[in-house]
Amino acid sequence: MSVLERSGRAGRAARRAAESGSGPVAGDAEPQRNPGARNWFGLLGEVLTVGILVTLASVPLVTLPAALAAGVRHMRRFLRAEESTFALAWNDFKAAFVGGIGVAVATAALVLVLLLDIDLANSGALPGGSLIAVVGWVGLAALGVAVFTAAGLWTPQLRWRGALRAVPAAVRSDLPGALYLVATGVFATVVTWQLVPLIVPALGCVVLAVVAIPQRPRRRMADEQR
What we know:
single chain; mainly alpha; membrane
């Protein structure tokens, strides 16, 4: 093999390593923001894997917030091409478990109240039922955004109390992102209602959306301008 061939192969290997995040970038080139997302098939497989993990961990229902938080952190590590083992995800789930139960119970109670209001409004038993129904649906959407955002903000250091306190500021700073989260929740609900097993990829998509929406290009450009 000639020196030029070896040099060419070494150069191509260096470029692949730089693009994937596994190696240094050359010169003034910018490193990839999410190198783990370059392989679309790998990303699809990871979305399905995370969906399975979140679904299994959410079977008791009260563990859903903890499962989402652990799934988000796992997906974030994967996209950054960092170590993303199941052991790390399990540690995150255990750390988020206790506080997550309180979040799940409070969320379930609010969901039941809002669904009851919507049902009563649709029954015609309440005056101004249509307005009450709208308020109920808006409340459900806001609750979903709050849970998704808190799961995205949660860390073992911040914990659930800090994550929940940071939700209003996060939503105010990115109102379009909150609408995207609403659309994500509606999508997950509709596909699961149509076919229950689709909850697995739906939850995987929710986790990916929670990670990706704050990092979308429009948000990054706005942050740089500020």
